[in-house]
Task: structure prediction
Amino acid sequence: MLYIMKRTQLYLDEDLWEALHTRASFEKTTISELVRTAARERYIVDPEKRREALMGIVGIWKDRTDLPDTETYVRNMRKGTRLKRLGIL
Result:
């Protein structure tokens, strides 16, 4: 994949720089490439991976019996006195 690069400057503490320098030497790459790879993995979300993760949680609570039905829950939430306290009712 071809990327248009933008130049930036980072200040790294000594421990982080040492760890990146060691890893870059071991992997025969540059500190810059390690930082780019880490930033991509952390901040650029692959849409297919995101969809797969979301589909993995669909219906996760469908068989729970310890929760009230939605209508009961909402009605209980609406029984509060906030509107009365605010003088709306």
In short: The mean pLDDT is 87. The first helix runs from residue 14 to 27.
